[in-house]
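User: Modeling request: complex.
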Amino acid sequence: MELAGPMLDAGARVIDLSGAFRLGTAENYQLWYKERHTQPELLKEAVYGLPEFCRGRVAAARLISKPGCYPTAANLAIKPLIEAGAIAREFGVVCDAKSGVSGAGRKASLKTSFCEVTENFSAYSILDHRHVPEVLRTSGLDEGEFSFTAQLIPIHRGILETIYFRASEKVASADDMLALYRGRYESEPFVRLYAPGQVPDLQAVAHTNFCDIGFKYDQKTRRAVVISAIDNLVKGAAGQAIQNMNLALGYPETAGLL
Amino acid sequence: MELAGPMLDAGARVIDLSGAFRLGTAENYQLWYKERHTQPELLKEAVYGLPEFCRGRVAAARLISKPGCYPTAANLAIKPLIEAGAIAREFGVVCDAKSGVSGAGRKASLKTSFCEVTENFSAYSILDHRHVPEVLRTSGLDEGEFSFTAQLIPIHRGILETIYFRASEKVASADDMLALYRGRYESEPFVRLYAPGQVPDLQAVAHTNFCDIGFKYDQKTRRAVVISAIDNLVKGAAGQAIQNMNLALGYPETAGLL
Amino acid sequence: MELAGPMLDAGARVIDLSGAFRLGTAENYQLWYKERHTQPELLKEAVYGLPEFCRGRVAAARLISKPGCYPTAANLAIKPLIEAGAIAREFGVVCDAKSGVSGAGRKASLKTSFCEVTENFSAYSILDHRHVPEVLRTSGLDEGEFSFTAQLIPIHRGILETIYFRASEKVASADDMLALYRGRYESEPFVRLYAPGQVPDLQAVAHTNFCDIGFKYDQKTRRAVVISAIDNLVKGAAGQAIQNMNLALGYPETAGLL
Amino acid sequence: MELAGPMLDAGARVIDLSGAFRLGTAENYQLWYKERHTQPELLKEAVYGLPEFCRGRVAAARLISKPGCYPTAANLAIKPLIEAGAIAREFGVVCDAKSGVSGAGRKASLKTSFCEVTENFSAYSILDHRHVPEVLRTSGLDEGEFSFTAQLIPIHRGILETIYFRASEKVASADDMLALYRGRYESEPFVRLYAPGQVPDLQAVAHTNFCDIGFKYDQKTRRAVVISAIDNLVKGAAGQAIQNMNLALGYPETAGLL
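Assistant: Request completed. Predicted assembly structure:
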């Protein structure tokens, strides 16, 4: 938050990996991050760096706010559906998210010590994770429509989100849903789609900048389950920052990432 | 399925840990287990051995069908709420379930080999797991109201289920919900309840016959998240079988289990 | 170190799980633990609580020093052989020791954080671990004869030591070596011996107070490999303390431990 | 074994990753691999592909036998010392080896199933692993001088070997030993040496073609502990095969590997 200004003044393009510039307003930041935002004027300038949805603005931005890890996997899975009116929002969207331990950062902490994490699985920040407003802001969902739980997997890296919703009448079949995703992601270098009924696991995306998306659709009841998987240290962090940098500096978007 | 009859004929009380006698009808068994039920007459006699809800019938039964691991954790969490009319069922109930690898049984299998499981997390049987009808039968939910995904955690033992629903108007607050659970489980030796906002992790129940239940309730939007945790090898299998045996033979219910 | 005196003065029997009273002299303590020993008078009184070798003295002791985890596994494996003159000491004894992460204690530490330990294996305190003098004092080996490396396994609990030496002429065969161990441990409740060529793994001793010992002996070259396994949190810590307490208070030695 | 001949006849250069051509004679193969060698004439032609010691012959070879994973880490650590007469061989060399589970190959097997391996550590092939003769053949040690135990770490990938020996009078200090290694490996692209007292862990070499070597030397007693670490899937398998291919085809040796 404090470093971006001086860097911009010095003429640098800035890609911020923290949460400082993700939420749009100082009030929202204060509400979810529990501290005052000291650079509100930069908030207006900051461009949200989810290339699949803001490619053009990223290319032109001075200050890019790299998305959070959980919101990256969530928004890539649901935003195309929201935009297409494919979700019956009145029934709500559930996002059950799981992350490897590196998502907590590298530090001495009892909570992330080996013996607390191994042979364990635990939930945290149920319904009030600070990544929730970021998903809402990008996807267009309201808070009451989006239920999110973060959970810790005893692994090093990876985020897998299991997303439940009821499809609207626009989605008559699994093929309809796949067509919808394909229409949106056909030429995206870092989103991979699976055949209906097939879903990614975390080894599929480890050490890559891919977001893999698969789903199961029960036509009769319109219930859908989408699974979205990324490596939180790559597409969820440094890899997506490089993707943003490539766009900002006019390099090929996939440079260093494939 | 084949052994129960001869054992009963020989005068034994039988506690079946398989899925052979859980589903009530031969048709249902055929549908979900993909094989013909050869002992339909025993199906009628079998008592579902979830002591917290069928204690009296278990004590008198000759043939007890020990519940599946996933249904045990699911039904203990949702059945009291369903019975009390506390869930707005029209919005559906989501059960995102995770299990340690011992749930797959002890056998040579590529799927459960160390290198496939470690540093991984994967979903299977999305919306069509054979434990689904067992949950429906006990809880009273309809298939279209209950969305279930099974997932594999890289640990040995433990099941954690994250359950999402919208509460009905009967639940004005978190305290209401806790009171509801307390009313049902106050004197249960193997169900432990957590204060609102507190939830169990898997180390809390490992090597025990407890089912631990905690929840988070967002009063404003009526969204609730309940977390239910058991050790799949104890309350989810052999431990609950012993609990049933204790009831059937007139021993103290907790004998050998506390 | 500081608490033992006042407790003894108050009439208590004291079992110390720390390393404060294991090394016999204040000088030795200073040398290996890098701090001054403030209670040298108690050092003389302290009895080393390895019941398999000091049972009588433990029963009579006011102050019992519970052995370290690594020395427990090492001494149970090699002391019977040293006493019987079964090891050709001039060739040296190698003890390659591995421990689960709980051996480091429960605390916030980068070194024992999940992401540093998982998918890793690392050595520490090579040739200069503070448990070395404890092994020497009990076994009778000289420092130059005993090479010890401690290593961290990405598991919660368990110590496995792989011990290499050349047998003396007293050991003509694997059966001779087994007879030697049997003679010493026949009536020990917490030492289990394996047939020649069979060795324990860590799951065999997890959550128990057993020390399991197995070995391979190459008669032609007199090379022997002994594997000794304990649960560092039980026989290596609290379990052995209870075993000592049972002896000190006149309870059956196995009370609460089998 | 069977495929190499036809491939050579067809004009291909062959790099064999199996153990078929590592042991020099059909008798030795039969003894350690427990099956008859069907291509003894090819055994004579096969060149052992440890580039650090056979670079010239590899470049000219038609049939290259890629070294085993354990022997790669062992020989890179001890061969320079043997050649320099730096080891007092009469005291023996102990190699305590640990491997990740991928070393067992990808297959359905109870032994390598998740629940058998997690929270465990186990030894196998004590003193009689089939990689022993390969180490002897390359290093020049005799069987009676080399004690080897293989052990399974609950991780995916990586081999760490802890090697114990007594140094000869040619090694007066840790600096002498380092100088010896440096003299041998100075210009090697895939061997990294550590300062005396520093040793590698497995995360240091994961996903790389490096062999990292560190040691501790106790000048007073001449006892030395060398730790050698590789990724068994890279320098221990496919990576070293590529290194051989680069040499055989005249590419830069590090192509695709750095």
